[in-house]
Amino acid sequence: MKAKRPDLKQLRQKALQKSDVKGAYDALSPVYEMKRKMIAMRKKAGLTQEQMAELLGTKKSNISRLESIGSDISPRLSTLEQYAQALGYSIKVEFEPMQHPL
User: Fold this and answer.
1) 66 near 79, Cβ under 8 Å?
2) Which residues, in sequence order, are CB contacts of 50 under 8 Å at separation 6+?
3) Contacts by 29-33 with C-beta closer than 8 Å and gap 24+?
4) Cα–Cα dist 15/57, whole Å
5) Which of 28, 68, 74, 86 might form a disulfide with 55, Cβ 3.0–4.6 angstroms?
6) Alpha-carbon span 60 to 49, nearest angstrom
7) Which of residues 78 and 1 earns the better pLDDT score?
8) Is 21 helix (H, G, I), strand (E, B) or coil?
9) In whole numbers, what is the pLDDT of the chain averaged over residues?
10) For residue 4, what are the contacts with CB-CB under 8 A and spacing of at least 6?
């Protein structure tokens, strides 16, 4: 009988026990959360990436890149503001002290 393969949650817990992985995960967490919220706002409005691109006067590929956690491109704050405003939202930027300063 084969051993049960670990699920994603178990793999994540094991990986986060390594300090270098945990540090990288924590560094990406705010970006991931922001992009997850952006996608949720767009979907709540019932818009596809193509429709969002039309609203912003850009291409679907730009919206896809903007919403992608894997993108190396860091959007300007004005781009994020336009995205939010097109969906009826505003942006609030906050600074918080780091738990483990660099």
Assistant:
1) yes
2) 60, 63
3) 31/69, 32/69
4) 41
5) 86
6) 6
7) 78
8) helix
9) 87
10) none
Count of CA atoms in the C-beta half-sphere (13 A) of 11: 5
Domain boundaries of the chain, sorted by first residue = 17-86
pLDDT band at 99 (very low <50, low <70, confident <90, very high): confident
Handedness of CA 28, 34, 38, 40 (dihedral sign): positive
Please give the radius of gyration of the chain, using alpha carbons only, rounded to the nearest integer.
Answer: 17
CA proximity to 74, closest of 26, 19, 21, 35:
35
> Is the pLDDT assigned to residue 12 strictly greater than 90?
no
Architecture, CATH, for domain 17-86: Orthogonal Bundle (1.10)
Q: Which tens digits make up the pLDDT trace of 41-72?
A: 999 999 999 999 999 999 999 999 999 988 87
Mean pLDDT of 77-94: 96
